[in-house]
Each structure stands twice: as C-alpha cells, then as structure tokens.
Amino acid sequence: MSNIDPAGTVMERIEALARISEEPGRLTRTFCSPAMRQANDLVGSWMREAGMTVSEDAIGNLIGRYPGRDERAKTFLLGSHLDTVRDAGKFDGPLGVITAIACVQQLHQNQVQLPFAIEVIGFADEEGVRYQTTYLGSKALAGTFNEQDLKRVDSRGVSMAEAIKSFGGDPGKINSAKRDPHNLLGYAEVHIEQGPVLEKKYQPVGVVSAIAGQTRIKVRFTGRAGHAGTTPMNLRQDALTAAAEFITAVESSARAQAGLVATVGQIEAKPGASNVIPGEVNLTLDVRHQLDAMRTAAVERLQNLANQIGEKRGLTMDWEIVHEAQSVPCSRELSDMLAKGARQHLMEVTELPSGAGHDAAVMGDITPVAMLFVRCKGGISHHPDESVEVDDVRVAIEVMNGFLLSLGNQKHPSPSKKNV
Amino acid sequence: MSNIDPAGTVMERIEALARISEEPGRLTRTFCSPAMRQANDLVGSWMREAGMTVSEDAIGNLIGRYPGRDERAKTFLLGSHLDTVRDAGKFDGPLGVITAIACVQQLHQNQVQLPFAIEVIGFADEEGVRYQTTYLGSKALAGTFNEQDLKRVDSRGVSMAEAIKSFGGDPGKINSAKRDPHNLLGYAEVHIEQGPVLEKKYQPVGVVSAIAGQTRIKVRFTGRAGHAGTTPMNLRQDALTAAAEFITAVESSARAQAGLVATVGQIEAKPGASNVIPGEVNLTLDVRHQLDAMRTAAVERLQNLANQIGEKRGLTMDWEIVHEAQSVPCSRELSDMLAKGARQHLMEVTELPSGAGHDAAVMGDITPVAMLFVRCKGGISHHPDESVEVDDVRVAIEVMNGFLLSLGNQKHPSPSKKNV
C-alpha cells in the first residue's frame, strides 16, 4: 500500500462506501441499519490495516485506536460520521473518517508513534434521518445523549433501543460510551465545506473558525382573505405582500452584516387560490452567525422589522423561536496548528465559519475542537452531485499529517478547551 | 302578500333556498344536482305566484315569463344563478333571482303590464363547481356553450350529458336554449358586491360600470437551491427573495394605477425546507382592470419588472399567461337608468367595476347588460358569513322597480348593444 497515493486510496474507499446503501440506486445509510453494519465492518477492516485496534461503543460508533508512545498518555480524536441523508452524496461524513484513517496509516507505515494515542471515530448518527434527531453518535461520547430518545420509533415502528440492540450495541449502557474530558487532547474533523466559499476563493482547504449558532423562527402574518377581483388595493390586508416586504428586508439586513446569513426557506400562503388575496402566510426564518451576540441582535432587529411591517399594514404578526443553538468556537490553538500546516501548501489560508452543524459542535462540549473544510463543487451537498477533487483530498491529508506531527512535537500537548 | 314588505319576503326566500343543499350542515348546490332540482321547483313556485309562466330550457335554466302588453314585443331579461360554490353564502346568485321575482310580483299585484315581456332567469350553473367550467347556464342562452363540455365527468364519473338528462334537460338540444338577440332588449342582474367598496362608502347599492377583464399568469423564478447555513448572502441565487421583490413591486405598481388590482394568491417555494435556500418559486398573478388597454399595459409592465428582477439576480424567469378574459362594459343607457333610479334613494350613486365575473359578462355577448351591486358585510363572499342587510335589499328592489318602469316609459325601448 505504501507506494499508492493515499488520496487516491481515500477516493476509492469513499466510492466503495458509497455502494453500501439501504436503498437501491441511491445512497441512503441510516443509523443502525444493515447498511451501517456493512459500512462499520468495511471501515473497521481499513482501520485494522492502518494498525488500529477496532471496537464499537454501546451506540454503534466505530472506534479505531492507534496507541501512543506512552500508553498512559491522553488521546486525540479524529473522525466524522458514517451515516448519510436520504439520496446522499458520497463525501459528507465519510471524507473525514477515511482521511483520518489515511493519516494513521501513514504513521503506521512509517512506524511512527506519537506521544499520545489517536482514535479515529466513525460516528453512528449525525444526520438523524431515521429518528429525526441529530448527533446521536457524538452525543453519546459527550455524555449529552438523551435517554428518552431510546423510545423514539422509526417509520416502521422500530424503537431506537431495539435498533441499537439488533445492530450489536447496548441501549442500556449508552453512558459507557461517554468519554472523560481529562483523557482527551482534542478532536479534529475533516469535512466537505457544503458551501461555495472555498471554490470561489480557489482554495482546496480552509480552517473553520467556529460552528455558527443558529436561531430558527416561525413567522406568521395574519391579514384578511379577500376576492382578488373585487377588493381594491387600498382596502386589502394582504398577508403575502406583508411577507414579501419582510423577506426582502431580511435579505437586505443580512447582506448589510458580514458573516450573517438569514434565509426564508418555507412559505405557505392561505387559502392559496389564484383569485383570493392571502389572509395568512406562514414562513420559516433561519438566522446564523459565528458570534452569538451578532446573531441574537440580528434576530431582534428582524423581529422589530416584522412587527413594523405588520403594524403599518394593519396585520398581526406572530414570532415563535422554535430552535436556538449557540455558536461553538473552534480552539484557537488547534486551528492555528491546522493553518500552519495548510500554509505549507497555500499562499493564504482561508478561515471561515461553518454554517452547518457537525459532530465537532457536540464534541466541543468536552474537548477543544478544530475542523478542516475541503472545497466542494458548486457548494452542492446532501445531493448525489456532491463532489470533491482528489487533489484537494491530497492537500487535506498532508495538512492533517502535519497537524498530527506538530501536535506530537508540542512539549505539553494539552491545548486548553474553548480558548478562542 | 301585498301587505308584506317585499324585502322581508326576499330575505325569507333566500333563507329557504339556503336550506336546500346537497351537503349536510353547509350550503352546496351544484349544477343539475337533486338540490338544484328542489331549488328550481321552489323558485318556480314563487315565479308562478308572481304571475309568471314557468319553464326550463334544455340545460336546466329556470325561466319565468311575465308577458308584456304586446305579445309581439321584445323581452327584457332579469336574473342571476341558483347554483353555489361549496360551503357557500346565501346571497351570491339567489339575491338576483329572488329580487327580480319581487319586482315582477309588484307589477303583477298592481296589475301593471309593461310594453315588453320580462323573463326572470335562474341560471343553472355559474360557479362551475361540478364540472370545473363556468357560466354553463348563460352560455347556453348566449349560444357560446361548448358541446365538448358535455363529455366532462364529475368527481363520481357522471358525465355532464347524463347529469343534464337526469335533471330533466336535453343534452342533445342545448342549442334550443339559445336566444335570438333581436328579440331581447337587455339583461339586468342584481348581485352582492363581493367586495368592500360600497360598505366603505356607506352606499346600499352601486351601479356596475363594467365586468373587469382579467389576465391570469403563472410566474416562475429559478435560481439555485443551497444550504441556508453555508452559502453566504452574496453567493446566493435565492428564488424566494426574487419572488418577494416581485410581489412587493406588483403591489406598488397596482397601487399606483386607479382601478387596477393585481394579486399573488398562490406561492410555492422549492424544495421548501427551513434550512435550504429556495431554488425555485412558482406563483400565480391575477391582474384585472375594467379597461382592457390598461390591463394589458399593466401585465406588460409587470412582466418587464419580473424580467429585470430575474436578470439583476442571475435567475431565470418564466412567464405564462394561462387565462385572459376581455372586459365587458355595461350598457351606458341601462346603467344611467339604474343610476337615475338609485338617485331617488341616495345622495350620490357610486359607479364601480365588477372585479368578479358574472352571468352578465356572458349575456353581454348577445344583449346590452347592466348590473346593480348590493352592499355586503366586510366584502365577504363565497363563505357562510356572506351577509346582506334587508334595508339594502329594499333599496335594490325599489331601484329595479323604477328601472323597469323607466324602461317601460321609453318610447323606443331598444338600448343599443355595448354602447359604452
């Protein structure tokens, strides 16, 4: 294997993994499915080939351990998830697991042991397709798994507890998967960007500054339905024109503030007939920023805007925050080490926030985290067209190799937690 | 009956008709249904009571004829429709038929015969609920009925031809219902306004200037879907923000032009997830004006606007006109006569276009038409809350009585067709 391009191997393995699906003709691999069983077995075999001992924890996370020089030393975690969305792309998740294995394989081939152990984790669930809940795998490690979730049932009536059991896990002992923060040095994850920034900047990889916080809001404008032909413009209480004014204001407001993204993704106008003025409009608003203070200020500003639009037009406006997640800053120390490695390959290293959630956001609860994004084609993700270039994967592997060696050369390899 | 308030009688009869429904608990009366059979029979009995001879034509229109002084004289038509939408209000349609009967009843009681015959028509279908086609009744009279429609089937698989037959009509002889324009003096219809204008002006009735023309357009903006978290604002091709900009522009544009109404009633954003930037938006646009030139100019202006918005944002815009109906002007002569009658009761008579379609629009093909709108509560129509005051009905009856007498006093009762 030593003469083969590791990036080429990573691409081949990602292709091989992509053939393991629970749906014919498209890639779908959900938590504790037979496809996940096959995936864990295959990836486990690659881990063994890279000199790792392989195990699975109580929730089905696949763990490959590469020992350090001192067996009492701490552990550095690498990884990402092996589950996918429905009709998925090949790279979201597997890229991080397979590049991590490639890095360990290189150490193994060169008979290098670092002062600390490395564990590569293939998380059992990040996308949450089967049970409509996310990060099951990393939450088990972080100790934030909600035991109530074990009662959830999938679309065929199978409870999560049953699913874990039939997979070979132990739903009664999810706690045992929890990691002691004192034994951890940190967590680093390679992931496709799932956005267009690196492509636009002609950068193969970028260092993630933070996993952005998010507020999800349900907004409703209530006016009065009316006949589209018989109600003059000045006597209308059109909920859709109010919503339209709000949507354009959301866009302008987000454009005016660096790093802010705000999106209306769903809209429903009632009653929804071509000849009836909409009396009610429901829409979703998704606001993200890597700085929580900026995000909450933006949300407040947008709520005021919606209120003003409603009042001006004689409509009522309802505003319901349905989800809120704090930003998870990446470790400055680990990120600088990644950037230093990247600078060996790039003139300039792009630092960017992750607008999407990742296992790293959960792992941030117990250990310093860092992420390396790999450029993807057209920002496309969660879609069969998801695409990454082999040359970019090569850069990612080299950056991660350099990162691990730098970490090993540190006198005191114990970056403080959340020191951004 | 002579001592009873005719408006009170009209209200009682409208209540009685509203109890004839094909659905329990709500008013639904569709073309050639058993409920329509009952309705025709009941209304026919009131026609007879008012001195009319009663018949049904081949499509099931109910026709009551009150002879003129000279049996060779022409005929003036009054009427509206007896069918309803699903879960309808009581007044849309029946108000016009029942007030017309009240007018004839008054002539009959006073033993007055006019120089011309009057026919009161209860059209069998205006709303088109059962066969998704409108104005079946008036089209039969106007000679514009499409024989192909006889093959249409309702939701239970019953063809229109079968329905007409079982109702007692003759689908093979729809042509026989056609009226000779030379024998007609005109058509006048009383109808609830279905809009808020008269209520806002504190006017019980108003004279209709024209039945507005209408253009219905399907508009599509196609951009690119993307992750709501990972796609910066400046790299988006958001189809919904484009649509929102268009909707607000439609509103401003319509507000800026007297008599123009433009409505976006349906909107669909795809893929329609809260965390995905919409890549495609489909919406409907409904544009109406009583002057066709104004409407077509407005449609062109809005299409240019949509194009500009699409181009500016790097999106494609599709524009498909799916329906276009010309405006039907009411007869100046007949409308002036209505207005003259109304001036006996009101300081000022409001003339307003009808944004909704009516049987009068079809009858305009063969004879001069006029319409009297009656104020309704809150502009609500096509809804059980549809409401008209008895005092306003009284004004309507008196205006129509005056109108018929003026028409009888004319030396040459032959208003020219479409002389607006």
Report what the structure shows.
- The structure is a homodimer of 420-residue chains.
- Chain A is α+β, with helices and mostly antiparallel strands and 420 residues long.
- Chain A has two domains: 6-211 and 328-409, Aminopeptidase, CATH 3.40.630.10; 213-325, Alpha-Beta Plaits, CATH 3.30.70.360.
- Chain A contains eleven helices and 16 strands.
- Chain A has helices at residues 6-18, 34-49, 94-109, 136-142, 160-167, 197-200, 239-255, 292-313, 332-343, 359-363, 390-409, and strands at residues 53-56, 62-66, 75-81, 117-123, 184-192, 205-211, 213-222, 226-227, 261-263, 267-270, 276-277, 280-289, 316-325, 328-329, 350-354, 369-374.
- In chain A, strands 1, 2, 3, 4, 5, 6, 14, 15 and 16 form a nine-stranded mixed β-sheet that branches. In chain A, strands 7, 9, 10, 12 and 13 form a five-stranded antiparallel β-sheet that branches.
- The longest helix of chain A is centred in the C-terminal third of the chain and has 22 residues, at 292-313.
- Chain A is globular and about 80 Å long.
- Mean pLDDT of chain A is 94; it is low at 412-420.
